[in-house]
Design a protein that fits this description.
Blueprint lengths: L3 E5 L5 H11 L3 E7 L2 H11 L3 E5 L5 H14 L4 E4 L14 H29 L2 E6 L3 H4 L5 H21 L4 E8 L5 H4 L3 H9 L9 H12 L10 E4 L7
Helix pairs in contact: 1-9, 3-4, 4-6
The chain binds NADP nicotinamide-adenine-dinucleotide phosphate (NAP).
Length: 241
């Protein structure tokens, strides 16, 4: 019997997949989401007895409602990892309203929709962990990513505020802000951009999803009991913070 129940959004690939596996290795039963049934089936296969895949489009209210209903009818979830994210890059003057809205909805508005319904169960337990995945771009800004940077900066403010509201209930709320991590999201960057990014990373290499997952696992555990409202950077020293 697993001791805790978690939901990791965007667990089908990249950082979310590493987080789901890492939490599962720490005796947590993990609901890992994907946007399609095929992806959810792959998550179920990956997690085996330690979890299950579910379909969830975080930018679709009906999909969030259905996923929340499924999870809350089966389990009392006390760990929520808001990891799902997208980029739709363009210089601001060329950025369409649709691309602005989609990135804000998926990366930021979704947190409001997902945190709220799970809080009751965490309050009942007087124990909870909410971990939001931000980005170095939320502090640094990045030409071509005004929508993404706005959403990720918003996540940090949301995290600090929620931490203040929920501290007395035994629920911690933190943000993990990765730098440049090797996943599908960064695979399409051209070599010149990658070289420029690498030059700004003191550790001199791109990060691995597992390295982000380790920090999330700490924040999801009992060991982080006096850490809340924080943004932990996992970026190889980029920007020096
Ligand atoms: P990724 O490899 O592109 O994976 C994205 C994940 O999010 C997939 O599981 C995808 O599901 C899911 N997803 C996409 N749109 C969704 C939606 N509308 N509803 C629900 N799920 C959705 O990305 P990643 O690099 O692992 O990034 C994970 C998180 O880390 C994101 O929040 C990202 O902003 C952040 N981050 C990444 C980096 C980096 O360098 N990679 C740096 C800083 C921050 P499907 O497989 O079903 O499409």
């Amino acid at each position: 019997m697993s001791s805790r129940i978690a939901l990791v959004t965007g667990a089908s690939r990249g950082i979310g997949s590493a987080i789901a596996m890492r939490l599962a290795s720490a005796s947590t039963f993990v609901y890992g989401s994907a946007t399609s049934q095929e992806g959810a089936d792959r998550v179920s296969e990956m997690l085996g007895d330690s979890g299950t895949g579910i379909v969830l489009q975080v930018n679709d209210v009906d999909s969030v409602t259905a996923a929340v209903e499924q999870v809350t009818s089966e389990a009392n979830l006390t760990i929520l990892v808001n990891n799902a994210g997208v980029t739709k890059d363009n210089l601001f003057l060329r950025m369409s309203d649709a691309d602005w809205a989609d990135v804000i909805q998926t990366n930021l508005v979704a947190l409001h929709r997902l945190c709220k319904p799970f809080l009751r169960g965490m309050m009942r337990e007087r124990w909870g962990r909410i971990i939001n995945v931000g980005s170095v771009v939320g502090r640094m800004g990045n030409a071509g990513q005004a929508n993404y940077a706005a959403a990720k900066a918003g996540i940090e403010g949301f995290t600090r505020s929620l931490a203040q509201e929920l501290g007395s209930r035994g629920i911690t709320v933190n943000c993990v802000a990765p730098g440049f991590i090797e996943t599908d999201m960064t695979a399409s960057l051209d070599e010149k951009v990658k070289e420029q990014l690498l030059a700004r990373i003191p550790l001199g290499r791109i990060g691995d999803a597992q390295e982000v997952a380790e920090v999330v696992a700490f924040l999801a555990s009992e060991h982080s009991s006096y850490v809340t409202g924080q943004t932990i950077a996992v970026n190889g020293g980029m920007l020096g913070y």
